[in-house]
Design a protein that fits this description.
The structure holds two protein chains of two kinds. Chain A is built from 13 helices and two strands; from the N terminus they run αββαααααααααααα. By secondary structure, chain A is mainly alpha-helical. In chain A, a hairpin with a 4-residue loop joins strand 1 and strand 2. Chain A is globular, with a radius of gyration of 24 Å. By secondary structure, chain B is mainly α. Chain B has two domains: about 55 residues, no CATH class; about 200 residues, MetI-like fold (Orthogonal Bundle), CATH 1.10.3720. The chains are: A mainly alpha, B mainly alpha. Chains A and B meet through helix 1, helix 3, helix 4, helix 5 and helix 6 of A and helix 1, helix 4, helix 5, helix 6 and helix 7 of B.
């Protein structure tokens, strides 16, 4: 039983974390909101007064906006599709009896621990470089013209790099979920003569649905804000300027703080829509 | 009952899994191999895999030329400092939420989680401005605090899920025996919580080490950690594959090794306890 004394002590112990996070959330966000209603150009005249919703309108009507939405969608959906499909297949494979399972797991999970700047640079130069990259050598070996990956197939290349980074995460979570599946259920189905595909479709996949939802939601939140991979490879050119990158350019490169802040508020709203779904799932788990 | 598996099927599984594992790991392997080549061998066509003269020259050059030790120290300082600070703030909070839960505990936990989802770019300018005003730009301490704050929700959550598994009866028994709050934490809880705290520390050290939005935007020469050091190789004049590989290998090796120890905690930490 918690006493009155321990309750107030508990509140005291919680206070630093709550206050810090509250400050971290409210102070910068209020400032962004404040700037988003101003014409504010630090390099060209500074604070030029209130402009109402001008920045919000200009942000979505600028010619860069819709391409950035498309780029963001292509990257997020592309990576989600690749990581979930291959993640499920890989998790099922890794769950099978084999020799050296532990070592394979270590190999598969490794890309997740590579810092984003390293993986972007390694892929950009050592694999996708049209002259010296491994892909160029491979293409030439088959008598094909090497592809200039990051300019001709820029979005696909970014999707590829980011998928490589996130496939381990999806695989690991799905594998953890598969391992909690009751194998007797599968055996019973097998005895009853259910073919492998129906066993997968009616038992494994439904069992994985919650884990897949979690993978999708968590990855979406991280994928919406990928930055280093684009910063290092294309700097936003060749159609790879995502919403995050566009806002970054507005704020730090062209120093149009008002416009960038309005974009930032859009990004916050977008992330919150995703967050609501994720929190519902996580919250349900707390009651259990 | 374990399912009986034919040896033939096990061989097929093994071959398939190892090939895919090798394929996924290949970019890392290739980077490590290239770091031991000369620049000429590194771009040779056709590529050389193992039969080349192994050399440590690239490591020497990178160490000499780039002040690698400073970047490494910055990474250790920022990742270690932010994790330790985070633990100091989070342990009491997670403890009280796990053992003295109130009606609002769940809401507070979910709210903390929601702060993790705040897109960094949405608060880039305010943070940038504050850093300028406070003289924290390109300063290790400022960056340590920011990284601590972005990882704090994960730290609280991970600790909370670990603490919740400690049976409350033990604490009650200690209280009955007249243990004060302080001795309860020090002698009863801490020994049982150490494994969970260690896992939390490990995973958050890794996340902080690899963080690449704030480290790229808030540092220049002085406080830049390894993420920024590597990004400096993206400028055209720095394009030497073997040296790039050596620098990359040095930047990822420590965390790759730590990471392999933290596989299980990774699932728990990154799904906020929703998948165990």
């Amino acid at each position: 039983m918690a006493t009155q004394h321990s309750r107030s002590a508990a509140r005291m112990m919680m206070a630093p974390a709550v206050i810090l996070l509250l400050g971290w959330m409210l102070v910068p966000l209020t400032m962004t909101l404040f700037f988003s209603f101003k014409k504010y150009l630090p390099m060209r005249g500074g604070d030029l007064g209130w402009v109402g919703f001008d920045n919000y309108i200009r942000f979505v009507t600028s010619s860069a906006f819709w391409p950035s939405v498309t780029a963001t969608l292509v990257i997020v959906l592309g990576v989600l599709f690749i990581t979930v499909v291959f993640g499920v297949l890989l998790a099922i494979l890794l769950d099978q009896p084999m020799w050296g399972q532990g070592i394979v797991r270590i190999l598969v999970i490794a890309p997740f621990f590579v810092m984003p700047t390293v993986s972007a640079l390694v892929w950009k130069n050592m694999f996708m470089d049209p002259v010296n990259g491994l892909f160029a050598h491979l293409w030439q070996a088959f008598g094909l013209t090497p592809v200039e990956w990051l300019s001709q197939a820029s979005l696909g290349s970014i999707v590829m790099i980011v998928s490589w980074q996130w496939l381990p995460f999806a695989t690991l979570i799905l594998l953890t979920a598969i391992q909690s599946l009751d194998s007797e259920q599968l055996e019973a189905a097998e005895m009853d003569g259910a073919p492998p595909l129906s066993r997968f479709g009616y038992i494994t996949l439904p069992h994985l649905s919650r884990a897949i939802t979690i993978v999708v939601l968590i990855q979406t939140i991280f994928l919406l804000s990928i930055f280093a991979e684009i910063f290092v490879t294309t700097q936003g050119s060749f159609g790879t300027r995502t919403l995050t990158y566009l806002i970054y350019q507005r704020v730090l490169e062209s120093q149009n703080i008002g416009l960038g802040s309005a974009g930032g508020i859009y990004a916050v709203i977008l992330a919150n829509i995703m967050a609501v779904f994720l929190m519902r799932i996580v919250g349900k788990n707390l009651d259990a | 009952m374990a399912r009986s598996v034919t040896t033939q099927r096990k061989i097929i599984n093994t071959a398939a899994a190892w090939s895919i594992g090798f394929l996924i790991f290949f970019p890392i392997l290739w980077t490590i191999l290239t770091s031991f080549k000369t620049e000429a061998t590194a771009i040779a066509d056709p590529p050389v895999f193992l039969a080349f003269d192994w050399t440590l020259e690239n490591y020497e050059v990178v160490l000499e030329r780039s002040n690698y030790a400073r970047f490494l120290w910055n990474s250790i300082f920022i990742a270690g400092g932010s994790t330790l600070l985070g633990l100091i703030v989070a342990i009491p909070a997670a403890w009280s939420m796990a053992f003295v839960p109130s009606r609002r505990t769940k809401d507070i936990l979910l709210w903390m989680l929601s702060t993790k989802m705040l897109p960094a770019v949405g608060v880039l300018y305010p943070i940038y401005l504050m850093f300028i005003k406070l003289g924290l730009l390109d300063n290790r301490i400022g960056l340590t605090i920011v990284i601590m704050l972005i990882n704090l929700p994960i730290i609280v959550w991970m600790l909370y899920t670990y603490f919740r598994e400690i049976p409350g009866e033990i604490l009650e028994a200690a209280r009955m025996d007249g243990a004060t709050l302080k001795s309860e934490i020090l002698y009863v809880l801490t020994p049982m919580a150490v494994p969970g705290i260690a896992s939390t520390l490990l995973l958050n050290f890794i996340l902080a080490w690899n963080e690449a939005f704030w480290t790229l935007n808030l540092t220049a020469a002085k406080a830049a950690p390894l993420t920024a050091f590597i990004a400096s190789y993206s400028s055209p004049e720095g394009l030497f594959y073997a040296k790039l590989s050596a620098a990359s290998t040095m930047a990822i090796a420590p965390i790759l090794i730590l990471g392999w120890f933290s596989q299980k905690q990774l699932v728990r930490g990154l799904t906020f306890g929703a998948v165990k």
